[in-house]
Amino acid sequence: MNRIIRVFTVSALAAGIAACGGGNDTGSTGTVSIGLTDAPALKFSNVTIAFTGMALKPEGGKWIEFDFPQNKTWNLLELQGGLSEPLITDEEIPAGPYSEVRLLIDTSQSFVNLASAPDVPKTLAVPSGEQSGLKLKGEMVVAADTTTDFTIDFNVQESIVDPEGQSLADYLLKPTLRLVNNLEVGSISGLVDYGTILQEPGGCSEDYEGAVYVYQGADIAPTDLNVNLEDSGPLMTIPVSNPNQNSLYEYTAAFLTEGQYTVSYSCQLDDNGTTEQLEFLGTQTVTVVANTETKAETIPLVP
User: Fold this and answer.
1) What pLDDT digit, counting tens, does each position of 227-257 carry?
2) How many other C-beta atoms can be found within 10 angstroms of the C-beta atom of residue 155?
3) Which of 87, 236, 260, 295 would give a disulfide with 218, using CB separation of 3.0 to 4.6 Å?
4) Please, how many CA atoms are within 13 Å of residue 216, restricted to the half-sphere of its CB?
5) Residue limits of the DUF4382 domain (predicted)?
């Protein structure tokens, strides 16, 4: 049976963070490190988020807080393809299961830039307030007497929403986050022959090289990305890149837990707030193995 990716529901809380404390009666401790990565975005050239701290909640215990002496500020679009930055490193905490994680951000120091207007910063806001942070619910187990490394995948493509009207800011932050154990993850990489695909008339959007869509499970019928539909659509979308300046474009989907995934490609623009009928190519099932880079077949597939 495939391991299930821990996908956490995120909400901006109205109440303040509780006092720090422990929640494990055995007295055993473990060491934890938590990093941050990002699945690429199509619309933005810069997504800078300033983190002021984070907190972990043991099951049945009190919040354990980590306040950063200085904001940890990153352009999340630079944390792709397996790259990450540390939120906390080698922190000793009570061993056992944890049910919630909070990320604290400073929206006054956070902003985005559109790819179409890279020199114009756009403001960000959290719809329900930012003082209590972004809350990730789920299960995280810290092993006793050892170090456990986790990574939070901050999926920008699904997390930054255009309110399209009067709002708290130019864009709203409604994060879709995944938390994975680094010992349980692998990656998928592959090539897209964009030059061959372009020979088919009318198939691609103008000046758009396309993106690879990754879905959890085998033989999934690919659909577009719509952040307004829960529990559907791709796990992540990855814009293809062309570092070698030839017809073969590249992609890497990182921090995937073991199991089967469906990979597909579209070169038609996708608005993440609406449902669209995209044309997909190269749909295939790929099996991810921990600590392994799995190579997908080149798209388009050879008959």
Assistant:
1) 677 667 899 899 899 888 888 999 999 999 9
2) 24
3) 260
4) 15
5) 29-175
Q: What is the distance, to the nearest Å, from the Cα of residue 23 to the centroid of all Cα atoms in its chain?
A: 29
DSSP string across 60-102: TS--EEEEEEEEEEEEGGGS-TT--EEEEEEEEEE-EEEEEEE
Residue showing tokens 């989907």: 253
Q: Which amino acid is at 91?
A: E
The strand pairing partners of 293, in sequence order, are: 187
Contact 113, 119 (CB under 8 A): yes
Query: Minimal CA–CA distance to 294: which of 260, 247, 264?
Result: 260
Q: Which domains does the chain have, with CATH numbers?
A: 7-181 (no CATH), 186-295 (2.60.40)
Nearest by Cα to 260 from 241, 234, 237, 286: 286
What confidence tens digit (pLDDT) does each residue in 3-49 have? Answer: 333 344 343 333 333 333 444 445 799 999 999 998 767 788 899 99
Residue 47, token pair as written in the block: 């997504």
Record the tokens describing residue 45, joined without a space: 């050239």
- β-bridge pairing 96-105 and 44-58: antiparallel
Question: Is residue 11 packed enough to be buried (19+ CB in 10 Å), middle (13-18) or exposed (0-12)?
Answer: middle
- Enter the tokens of residue 77: 């679009």
Q: Classify 249 as helix, strand or coil.
A: strand
Taking a C-beta distance cutoff of 8 angstroms, is the pair 161, 271 a contact?
Answer: no
